[in-house]
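Hi team,

Below is the intake form for YfhL family 4Fe-4S dicluster ferredoxin from Chitiniphilus purpureus. Please confirm the fields before the structure is written into the shared record.

FORM ID: S-0412
PROTEIN: YfhL family 4Fe-4S dicluster ferredoxin
ORGANISM: Chitiniphilus purpureus
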Amino acid sequence: MALMITDECINCDVCEPECPNNAISQGAEIYEINPELCTECVGHYDEPQCQQVCPVDCIPHDPDRQESKEALMGKYLAISGQA
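The structure came back. Fields below:
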C-alpha cells in the first residue's frame, strides 16, 4: 500500500530528500506523495524512510491504495528499470 501525508504535515522538509523514488513533493499546502512512485521504500530499505524521519507522524498507509509487498517490489523494479 502506498503512503500518504495527512493535514497534520508541518512542512518541515525532512521527508522529501529521504524518498529514494522521488515520490514526495511540495503540494499546494503540504507535502504530497505520488502513489505511482511510492514503494514504501521496498527495494531500498526495510522501513519507509519518510515515516522514520517525520517529527509529527503524519505519514500513514493510504487505505485507498492497498498493495502487497510483492506488488510494491514489482513497482520498485519497474521504476528502477529492472523489470
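SUMMARY LINE: The chain has two helices and two strands.

Thanks, M.
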